[in-house]
Amino acid sequence: xxxxxxxxxxxxxxxxxxxxxxxxxxxxxxxxxxxxxxxxxxxxxxxxxxxxxxxxxxxxxxxxxxxxxxxxxxxxxxxxxxxxxxxxxxxxxxxxxxxxxxxxxxxxxxxxxxxxxxxxxxxxxxxxxxxxxxxxxxxxxxxxxxxxxxxxxxxxxxxxxxxxxxxxxxxxxxxxxxxxxxxxxxxxxxxxxxxxxxxxxxxxxxxxxx
Length: 210
Prior knowledge:
Blueprint: H1 8-15, H2 32-35, H3 44-50, H4 54-68, H5 72-84, H6 89-98, H7 101-107, H8 114-122, E1 126-128, E2 131-132, E3 145-148, H9 156-164, E4 175-178, E5 183-186, H10 201-208
Antiparallel strand pairs: 1-2, 1-3, 3-5, 4-5
Helix pairs in contact: 4-10, 5-6, 6-10, 7-8
């Protein structure tokens, strides 16, 4: 699978918002975005003023894609599924992204970032209904239980994540967490109201509708 190997701080600066791609380190002093909260490059300070129309739609798509850590082809496939499903296409798209296993692991606090959550899933640390799932894009359903394998519950990185993740707000209403047993339950399917990130999904729908 393709991986972004450059500085992730550049992505935050390009989208002009903190995407928290480095997890706990994003809350510490010295964050590049805090010092230079404008697009990277020689003309970064002036770039935002020139963006309009198609440029705004493209930037919104790139922001959401980077926030959830998915590739272009994956993102386009999610949009196709959202478009075919009943309901509002933009909201369907965000719900598909929220249902990804790596996102659920992150939301439950087992990791400090989605990239770390993807690594936990890939390396077989995660169980869904007692069964090992090592596919980050696996879509969870209401009633599923997401937990850590027994040996992983004592992993220092996971313990640190459970104890020290801050700045995200409260646990989403569609999830419940049993921190003592490092297990979470999908109480219900996520809704648009549960997604607090500043996303204008209609711009993405307009972009793909051209």
